């Protein structure tokens, strides 16, 4: 009679095989694959759209002008503890900005068995997708995005799955789908991942503002949101323009995803001073350290800043792991949290 452990292994292997998955020993991975899981990389399977390679260059006049403007700023938000030019040069291939890089880790976040872990993430997302976004949002893999294909399922990526998870969380707590309209501000919008997805998922968004203290991010957001046909409902505000515009912005929801956690406490305080001017009704944060709100100082130290949020008039109303299923959380090995705040004064 087959021993129970061996029989279980065979059943598991058969189940994953039906999904196009193969379980292998970590030490059987090629050296190239192992190296790819530890460094910035991009997927070159899909060619760049015509003309974009000539635009997405470090010597693009628009990007050079933004860098000059940002370098001239003296505000705390413009002083970077992590997002310095050396890091950007080392980790960002500008023409493949949707690869595994400073913006979105796609392979490095899961390391070994990436294909298996993204399958688990996909099945989890299907279970919480009350808005049916996996049936309406798509992934084309452009600009270096790592994608995964499984039998009888659409192509997925971390860009897509993260967005589906985040939008469903926000809708679950704020009932966004049923609103007549609302306005969003994305602080640290990166290349424009979430604005693109939210505008596709929620056509009742009146306007989506993006701002960032990194010139490359502003440059890429401008390009990407226009490329995706989102220009009519988005305004990408370079940091100097945001400073001028902030007091007059009428914002319902402010968003910060893995951005405050990569700033100094001085920069964080600067941003919360701006939020105090705008008084958005809700604030959505995903920190880097579970549900702990910690800065990233240049000397490697960390400063807790939850008191700054409370002092700005915000009360925590939801704190959830991004994977509410503890088994999925353990198997994927990611324990980030969604934090949602409401303005109370």
UniProtKB/TrEMBL annotation:
Q: Return the protein name.
A: Sugar O-methyltransferase
Source organism superkingdom: Bacteria
NCBIfam families associated with the record: methyltran_NanM
Quote the InterPro entries the UniProt record gives. Answer: Methyltran_NanM, SAM-dependent_MTases_sf
Entry's SUPFAM superfamilies? S-adenosyl-L-methionine-dependent methyltransferases
């Amino acid at each position: 009679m087959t021993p129970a452990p061996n029989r279980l292994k065979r059943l598991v292997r058969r189940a994953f095989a039906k999904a196009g998955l193969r379980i292998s020993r970590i030490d059987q991975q090629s050296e190239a694959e192992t190296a790819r899981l530890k460094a910035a990389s991009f997927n070159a399977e899909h060619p760049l759209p015509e003309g974009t390679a000539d635009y997405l260059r470090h010597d693009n006049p628009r990007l050079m002008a933004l860098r000059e403007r940002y370098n001239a700023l003296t505000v705390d938000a413009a002083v970077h503890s992590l997002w310095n030019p050396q890091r950007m040069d080392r980790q960002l291939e500008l023409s493949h900005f949707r690869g595994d890089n400073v913006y979105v880790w796609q392979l490095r976040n899961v390391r070994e068995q990436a294909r298996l872990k993204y399958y688990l993430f996909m099945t989890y997302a299907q279970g919480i997708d009350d808005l049916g976004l996996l049936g309406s949002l798509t992934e084309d893999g452009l600009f270096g995005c790592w994608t995964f294909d499984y039998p009888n399922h659409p192509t997925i990526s971390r860009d897509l799955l993260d967005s589906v998870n985040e939008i469903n969380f926000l809708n679950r707590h704020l009932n966004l789908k049923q609103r007549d309209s609302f306005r969003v501000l994305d602080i640290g919008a990166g290349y424009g991942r979430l604005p693109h997805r939210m505008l596709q998922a929620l056509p009742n968004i009146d306007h989506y503002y993006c701002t960032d203290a990194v010139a490359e991010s502003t440059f890429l957001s401008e390009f990407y949101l226009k490329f995706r046909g989102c220009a009519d409902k988005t305004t990408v505000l370079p940091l100097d323009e945001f400073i001028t515009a902030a007091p007059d912005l009428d914002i319902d929801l402010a968003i910060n995803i893995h951005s405050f956690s990569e700033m100094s406490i001085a920069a964080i305080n600067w941003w919360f001073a701006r939020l105090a001017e705008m008084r958005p009704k809700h604030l959505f944060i995903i920190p880097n350290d579970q549900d702990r709100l910690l800065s990233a100082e240049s000397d490697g130290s960390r400063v807790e800043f939850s008191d700054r949020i409370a002092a700005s008039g915000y009360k925590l109303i939801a704190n959830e792991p991004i994977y509410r299923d503890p088994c999925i959380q353990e198997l994927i090995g990611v324990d980030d949290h969604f934090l949602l705040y409401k303005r109370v004064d």
